[in-house]
Structure formats: structure tokens, C-alpha cells
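Friendly challenge for the regulars: who can give me the C-alpha cells for this chain first? No prize, just bragging rights.
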Amino acid sequence: MKELVEEVKIGCHVSIAKSIDLAFDRAKKIGCSTFQVFTKNPRGWAFKEILKEEIDRFKAKYLNYNISPVVAHISYLPNLASLNDDIYTKSMVSFRKEIELCAILGIPYFVIHSGSYKGGTFQEGFEKYVESIQKGIDFGEGRVTILVENSAGGKKTLTGNFANINTVLEEINDSKVKVCFDTCHAFSAGYDISNQSGVSDFIAEVKASIGMESIAIIHANDSKTEVGSNRDLHEHLGLGKIGEIGFSELINDSALRKKPWILETPIDERRTDVDNINYLRSLIKNK
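First reply, four minutes later:
Bragging rights claimed.
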């Protein structure tokens, strides 16, 4: 009998244009088994009201489409570690509205990026970031798990390494806070996951720090820049500096392949989302 390939949930970030429930139709059309959305325009502070009819359609599709989990990502402007009072106030208003909408829609995961503590010390930024996440747990009323995303590193960022992320998790000590592992960010922060030994070393560090069980979602992105560049420039899978060997090693790891994989790769004349999804699936080996 032919050996079966273990099912791996793979999807990408999809648009919520015109109506948020249409994200399900877009995801289904391109063959996603999981997907990610913004719950608002990610490039501004303003919120557009989501009508009850949209919410009802979203919930119905969540029940009837075989696509899960749905993941939401915080918009671009909020800085949950900001030491600027005006920016921090705006950030928390947006953070709260976005998480509350996740709770209403039944979206179980909400990804937050690393905060920047510009103008202050690491400790000041760390304390502000932890305080923000603790408030976020309350905003979600126990229905939304906040995912701390590893960053590409660099000055004034908090989550460029997994030791720091582990400190955040330990300080909060709540099951409603887990981790989103971004492959491009890890590589840019100095984790050389482009080869077998590098992937093994990375997995060993994850196990020794946050623990593999703390990773809830994986953002699958190749990197346009070299390891340790601290630059967040996503590339099509296998065409960047991580390359095919790195992604093959990662997705065939017995623990990581059980996580949902969400792509945030470019869309251009070289590849579409469908192309990248199919490419990643092609790397999956039999059990």
C-alpha cells in the first residue's frame, strides 16, 4: 500500500476587500487549508465598521468551509512597546478594537509584531510590551490567543531572539499567549536555517527556550537578504537565501509540520500565492 503523506495545513494572507467574509472564498479558490487576514486597513488608524451581516456570513463560512484556523494579524501602525504617550494611546485603541473583533468573529489567533522601545531602555520597552499583552488577553475575554511574532532583530526591537520571547512568555505566564514563528525574520535575525545543521541548531534552541509547543503558527517566507541582515524583506519560497534545503528541513520536522503554515510571500510575475503554496506542499515527504 502506498504510504500516505501527512496532512499539513498551508495557506496565505488573503484580502478582506468589500466584505470580510469574502476572505474565505478567496482562500478556498487558491487552495488554502488555513489563512490569515487583517481585520482593518493595515496602513491607517481609522476603523471601518463591519456590518452584522458580514459578521454572520463570516461565522457561517467558518462553520461550513473546511478551512481552519483563521489567523488575524495586527495592523502596521500599532507599537505595543512605544514609550511615546500619543503613539501608545493610539496603539492600544487599535489593538483593543482588533482583538475584540477577533473575539466577535471567532478568530482564535491574533499575531502581534515586536514592539520598538525607541527613546528608552530595553527594560522600559519590555515592561510596556508585557503590560500591553496582558491587557490584550482581557480584551479578547479568553477567546483569543495572542501570538508574539519573532522579529528580524536590530536595534530597539524586543523579539529578535527566542530567549527574549521566552522571557516575555514567562513574565506573562498565560496559556492565551503563544508564538508565531516567521522564517524570514528568524534568518534575518541571525538563525541560519538554510541548511540541515542550522535547522537542527534552531530547533534545539527553540526547544530549550520557548518549547516547541509554544509555536502556534508559522509564517513561511524566504529572505531576500543574507543571514543576520536584520532586514525584513520577504521572498518567494526557495528563491531566497533560505532556499529549498532550508524549507524542506523545516516543513519535514516532525513537530513543525503539525503547525499551520501561512505564507506572506510576494505576488509578482515570477509566482502567485498558488505557486508558493504548491511549492511548499511539494517539499513534504511521506511519513
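The chain has a mean pLDDT of 96. The longest strand covers residues 177-182. Your move, everyone else.
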